[in-house]
TrEMBL record:
One GO molecular-function entry: ATP binding
Biological process (GO), any one: regulation of DNA-templated transcription
Domain (PAS): residue spans on this chain: 8-58
Lineage of the organism: Bacteria, Bacillati, Bacillota, Clostridia, Peptostreptococcales
Cross-referenced SUPFAM superfamilies: Homeodomain-like (SSF46689), P-loop containing nucleoside triphosphate hydrolases (SSF52540), PYP-like sensor domain (PAS domain) (SSF55785)
Protein name (database record): Arginine utilization regulatory protein
UniProt-listed SMART domains: AAA, PAS
Residue span(s) of domain Sigma-54 factor interaction: 141-369
Amino acid sequence: MDFKSIESISLYKQLLEGVSDAVIIYKKSGSILWCNRYASQILSKSGNDILGEDIKIYIPCISNENENNGIITLEKKGSLPKSFEVKREILKDGVHELNVVYLRNIAFFKPLEIKNKNKKPNNYEDNIIPYQNAKYRFEDIIGENKQLNDVKVLAQRAALSSSPILIYGDTGTGKELFAQSIHNASKRGKNRFVGINCAAVPDTLLEAIFFGTIKGAYTGAVDRPGLFELASDGTIFLDEINSMPLYLQAKLLRVIQEGNVRRLGGSDNITVNTRIISAINIEPFEAIRKKYLLNDLFYRIGVVCIRIPPLIERKDDLSILTNYFIKKICSKLGKKRKRISPAVLELFNKYSWPGNVRQLEYIIESSLTFIKDSEPEILLEHLPEYFRSTSIKTSQKKDLNAKSKVISLQEEINKIEKNKVIIALEEASGNISRAARQLNMSRQSLYYRMVKYGIMVSRYRSF
């Protein structure tokens, strides 16, 4: 197979789109060449945006040496489960060599792999529902940035009502942290919080998980309540709702409007009183424009819209967050508290942080994992290699941009100065001494500038 033409082979792409695993193809250097739709959903980025990026930004544990890279979790501790079995293989055609990584969702595939076909899962909630408590509160949201504090105030006010809330922001900004905090601060805080990542569940399972099933609805179906029943009188959190199929969004809209659900295969309507908090990783109207989100559904779930600012907009919190994660992770690893070197902090401030706060936490944990007990601070050499290379390139690019801006500024100054000299010579009819006095400079200085800018005095003399 000619790897250079992989994107033009529609059949090959269709096959990869149809598999139940997330598939990412990347070069030996780590640069991503292509991924299927499921991969872009769980990585919270469109396929085009992910192209060319380093695979280790999204999957830090990936190794070119091992075929089986174990299990990874793409969410930080306490967030909705995104645990994946990571496997890698190499494709060769004699000339080219590419890496393919497969991510298989543990939370939703493993429970279905029942060795004994006659044995049913012991507990539906234990096997299918991945998250049923809210441990975070507003005081757990770290930062002093004004934008962030304004968002916290808005979220605290929203918690006092039962209106649906839509939280949007880049991946890793802390959308679920806010969702849990809102639930705990609300009147429903003592009741159940049920969270689900819509991108991590195969489309074929979503309807049964949301609305429940009746025994006999399909082969192997049993009587099970859906998420909306389980979360009645509490809160349901629908993360990455923009990855939900549009037909299911239409059914969700009906549930919100009518306040009841009908189990798959059933005929009875079951009344539910569930508050909905949703999250998406792009701007709401962009999601509507790209047909990721139904327009009518947006107006139902987005009664209150809360935007979480990315880390690049709250760089003043970098030092606070860094020290917080160092303290937290050192305690977890049983290590003495470390400092962060000025060089590392400077690099952090110049970096764009595409993975936001979550990426910052991973970088610090990776650095602290390998630092020696005798070393008092995190140095550049302790940072993951992929981060060092990408962040230094970003820093150098910013420095070049800064230099180009300085050059542009100097050009503007020269342009203004040249125009001033020309105007003075015109008003003085080409008399250099008179023009110099008007400009409050010596004749010699004016003559120097005329030579510098190629100004011919004869043009301005009247005959």
